[in-house]
Amino acid sequence: MNSAVDAPSQNELDEFRGQVAAWLKDNKPADPGFLLPQTFMEVGSDQQLDFLREWQYKLWSAGYLGMAWPKEYGGQGVPAVFQVIADAEMRRAAVPIAFNVIGLGWAGPLILHRGTEEEKQKYLKNILSAEDIWCQGFSEPDHGSDLGNVQTRAVRDGDEYVINGTKIWTTMGNYAKYMILLARTNPEAERKYDGLSFFLSPMQVDGIDPRPIQKLTGEYGFTETFFTDARIPASCLMGEEGEGWKIAMQTLQYERGAEAGAAGGLMQVRVVIDDVIECLKGVTRDGQPLLEDPVIRDELVKLMIEEKAQGLSNRRAGIPALTSDYPFSLNLSGKLRSSEYARRMRKLAVAAQGAHGGLYVGDGNALDAGFWQRAYLNNFSTTIGGGTSQIQANIVGEHVLGLPK
Amino acid sequence: MSNALSFSDEQAMILDSAREFCREKSPVSAVRALLDSEHGYDPGTWEEMVALGWPSLAIPEEFGGAGLGFGSIVPIAESMGRALLSTPLFSTTLAAQAILRAGQSAHKEQWLPQLAAGTPATLALLDGGDWGAPTTHCAARRDGDNIVLEGEKWFVADAGVAQLFVAWCELQGESALLLVNRDQLAADAIQPHTLLDETKRAARVSFNGVSVPAAQLLDGAGANAVLRDLGLLGALLVAAEATGSTGACLDTVVDYLKTRKQFGQLIGSYQALKHPTVEMLCQLDSARSLIYHAATLLDETEATGELDTDTEIACRMAKAQAVEALTFAGDRAVQFHGGMGFTYECDAQLYIRRAQYAQQQFGDAWHHRKRLAALLLDAA
Q1: Residue A109 to residue A254: CA distance in whole angstroms
Q2: Does B10 touch chain A (CB under 8 A)?
Q3: pLDDT in tens, A19-48
Q4: What is the pLDDT of residue A3?
Q5: How much of chain B exceeds pLDDT 90, in percent?
Q6: pLDDT at A385
Q7: Which helix (H) or strand (E) holds B265?
Q8: Residue of B108, B124, B126 whose CA lies nearest to B116
Q9: Would you say residue B303 has pLDDT above 80?
Q10: What's the rounded Cα separation, in Å, for the pair A256 and A262?
């Protein structure tokens, strides 16, 4: 995107890093007194929404979000490496997430790369400033993550499309102003993928009804979104009819971060085994510190080995001579390994607390305000969403090991 | 904690040629043909390995070696593990490390060129079955210009062919490492163990009454630190070998799952078999990342320097992970082969036997995790 710009010097980058770090130090929000979402899929209250909206606005106003996007659309027009550095510093400073993730990481880069000038003007800046929240309408109740089977219908009627169907797991569907929507315009298409089209759909329209889903944590964050003869302008269609699958797949590419075109900012609060250990420091068992208990120590070290191996495997994935045995193994198993590791780590973090493990968010005596209990339950969104671990294992078994379907 | 992992073109070439060599020299038929042989390896293959310079890789150039650093053995050990190829390479390599790290220059000048040229040597460490024993009962006392030993060592790898033993003993209340030549042992000193892993050879070695010149004593003062480092290097070699064996075990399972039909279906289509097989792959991937991480750190360390904490962590994690991976894979390999898996003829037996044997060499997974806990949880 910025191929015309000269590569910045190491000095410039170092100076920039210092500058971001200093700004974050001065501007990191104080603990609001309520638990903040760890991911954008956990924004369940107005209180949390207002807080995160203000933070994202502040981040953008300071010039640390959408840095690689052009100036005329609210960005800074600098090479993506600056955003990568800013993100790394945000991670280090453990600041809250930039919560408008579908806008920043999916819809935004998509519009930037293939939207019309009018669309760029209309949407991009407000994605960065958190003025407009975006959601995603891909998954459907009966099809899980099998996107090729999307059944929601879009029928052209004059200057409008009429939408009927149901989407599920719409993150912040109740707060969003726009949705990237995958719907079927041609049920007769020979290949099911060719019947799909992609829309930048408004949400505040008669016939669109996002109903919050209460998660197993007791909180909200997703909606099931019902479309009943909802009429949206025909101009919402992105590309041509029948290009929906291609555009949806392009959208998923941006997840890989700022260098792939995403605006940047933290998508989730990173939690590591050291955080678990920190939480367990005050816990006792049999009158002795828990962290001196040999059984617990063994369990913790197993997780530490796994966490270390995950990080190293990310590096090894970039070394062809050490990946040729089972090509794509590390890439295809990445989600399975990391989400299952995260689940086991959080599970232990709750189980090892002693009687405190039975307390929940809202109890003043809960360790870390119940963070681990909630984090464990919420983590199932990663082992289920985007293709369950069992589906992931099938994919790895079939595509990496060549096992029969 | 370090997250270094790099692999040079030179290492990639070593890996490639080692893979090819081991595949060619050690098909399963050759492995099986050696199972009941006296020394467990083919001398011709060993000679070729010597000609390729493998025993010399981690020995400095001034002593007739290639001076590549210990990390360069890792791709070789992995490749040998993949082909279940046994030779005295690991024993000899570790004995050379003992001399390199604890010996005076006379020891190095006398022995390292010989070891680099393929004279087999080995470590004699254990009194019994405890890799974590803090002291040894093998007693050494001075007798004029000689040192006299009383004690027996167990699980001495490749003792049957070793021309030199590096024995851990206690001298005047301190740990010490003593060189003992083959011809200084009694005629019946070496009593082979019957090992679970039939591709391996190890023996009980009696040092009772053995008397050697005091000049064969390696540097006494640093013996404990050197013993720790030898334990870590040994653990890493076993880890690398086990990682290779896990890959071979996985391939054996996958082949069977792709060809065996039951109830009209290829059994690999059943998720009850497919998913644990994917778990084998994931465990293998973790082990591989950890052994090459340890190799990277070792190549960054001075050849004779004491191993730092990051390297210790890396070796221990590699060993714990690699043997857990192989134990899981071997165990499931037997089960997934059904009735065939219960037979001696099925190759799954080779892997499960190796798994349980490798688990024990240089400390099992609990041994290493216990020490990791002290390093990782008690530091602050």
Answers
A1: 7
A2: no
A3: 999 999 999 999 898 888 888 888 989 999
A4: 45
A5: 94
A6: 84
A7: strand B265-266
A8: B108
A9: no
A10: 8
Best mutation site among A276, A278, A280, A322 for testing chain B: the one with the most B CBs within 10 Å? A322
- At B220 the pLDDT is 61
Distances in Å between the alpha carbon of A90 and those of A18, A25, A67, A103? 12, 10, 14, 19
Contacts of A140 (CB under 8 A, 6+ apart): A149, A150, A151, A152, A165, A166, A167, A168
d(CA A251, CA A109): 8
List the single best residue of A272, A276, A300, A305 to mutate versus B (max B Cβ within 10 A).
Answer: A305
Distance CA A7, CA A17 (A): 16
Could you report the predicted ipTM of this complex, rounded to two decimals?
Answer: 0.96
CA distances from B313 to A147, A277, B69 (A): 44, 18, 18
pLDDT of residue A2: 44
Residue B322, both tokens: 């690699």
**CB A189, CB A195: distance < 8 Å:** yes
Reported as a single tens digit per residue, the pLDDT across A180-191 is 999 999 999 999
Helix (H, G, I), strand (E, B) or coil at B166: strand
List beta partners, residue B150.
B139
Q: Per-residue pLDDT tens for A311-358?
A: 999 999 999 999 998 989 999 999 999 999 999 999 999 999 999 999
Would the CB atoms of B376 and A310 count as touching at under 8 Å? no
- Closest-CA distance of chain B to residue A404, Å: 5
B302 burial via Cβ count (<10 Å: 0-12, 13-18, 19+): exposed
Q: What is the dihedral of CA B359, B334, B24, B8, to 10 degrees?
A: -50
What single-letter amino acid sits at A386? G
In tens, the pLDDT along B270-300 reads: 999 999 999 999 999 999 999 999 999 999 8
Q: Burial letters for A194-229: b for 16+ Cβ neighbours within 10 Å, e otherwise? A: bbbbbbbbbbeeeebbbebeebebebbbbbbbbbee
Residues pairing with A161 in the sheet: A156, A232
For the residues of B71-86, what is the DSSP string, one character each?
A: GGHHHHHHHHHHTT--
Tell me which residue in A302, A319, A326 faces B281 most closely, judged by beta carbons: A326
